[in-house]
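Intended use. Records like the one below are meant for learning the mapping from a protein sequence to its folded structure. Do not use them to infer anything beyond what is encoded.
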Amino acid sequence: MNYFSLNKLVTTLGVRRFLEFRTMKTKTIINAEGKDVIKKKTYENRITLISPDNSLSITDLKNAQNISLRRDLKLVKIQDIDSKTRRPVYKLMTNSEYHAEELSKRKEKQMARQNASIKGEKLLTLSSRIGEHDLMTGIKKMMKLVEKQYEVKVVIAGEDAEAAIKSEKIYQTIENQVRNMSKIVQKRVKGNSLRFQLLPVRGSSSEGTGSTDSNQNDNNKGPL
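Structure written out for the chain above:
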């Protein structure tokens, strides 16, 4: 090997070592003892992103926010930390999807609160021919059950041609008596019977609530 080849080799090795040194500097740090420690690459704000077509991608929160702005979509967190990936999960939603999701969440919370306070269900059947004394006894029973946090399902069974008129009068009497301590829902006529439900309400500040809710639910034809 001549002088010029040797000089060229030395120069090449020097440049390579220099480049390796520069690369190493970007990947290592020096601790208190003066030793090189490999610097771990960090992924700040890494998330799992669900697109409107339900496809998954891994990105950072800032990029996801930019995508939502460009595409006029809502960026919604649907899970704080995924148990497998250890990343939060976000979803891009249209405005209609977002509002539907919020409405669904509100309904779930409302049902959860209601179910947590109700101990169970009780069924009470009355005849459209019931006398005033027996009716008042039945109403007192309803009020005691509601006070104990039971949902009371009431059926007023029709037994003659004037059943509809009589059942409505009985309903009005019940409504006037229980309106201060319960909410009447799902009032409807099914066959020859008039049906509705009494739900407990907290406190006595809900006066008049039963009447309003029952009128709003007159056309609700769900089963008892």
